[in-house]
Write a structure and sequence with these properties.
0% strand; 104 residues; single chain
Length: 104
């Protein structure tokens, strides 16, 4: 199975369920919002401090775990981004559902 067909199949299943069930979409939207908030809380401050540590002490801090921490912070940033995208997708589905013409 190619990646394109797997992606479109997953998209069809998720969108089909989320479009039919507004409550489920709202719950998923809330979970994505909480995930974004939890994963991005204080992220900028920690990333800045980690980069300043590299700037001041060079590659000596790698042995102390600064490189691992930097990679974890970058992964956390992508997790926050994925949660934000999930939130925005649910928002679009809900807005479309609320503003669409009623079906006869």
């Amino acid at each position: 199975m190619s990646q394109g067909s797997a992606t479109s199949r997953l998209r069809a299943v998720l969108l089909g369920r989320l479009q039919r069930h507004g409550g489920l979409t709202f719950v998923l939207m809330g979970l994505c919002f909480l995930g974004f908030g939890a994963s991005s809380f204080n992220l900028v401050v920690l990333l800045r401090a980690n980069l300043e540590l590299f700037w001041e002490h060079g590659w000596q801090v790698v042995g102390d775990g600064a490189l691992q921490q930097l990679l974890e912070l970058i992964a956390l940033s992508y997790l926050a981004l994925a949660c934000w995208i999930g939130f925005k997708c649910c928002e679009k589905l809900l807005v479309d559902r609320l503003t669409s013409e009623p079906k006869p």
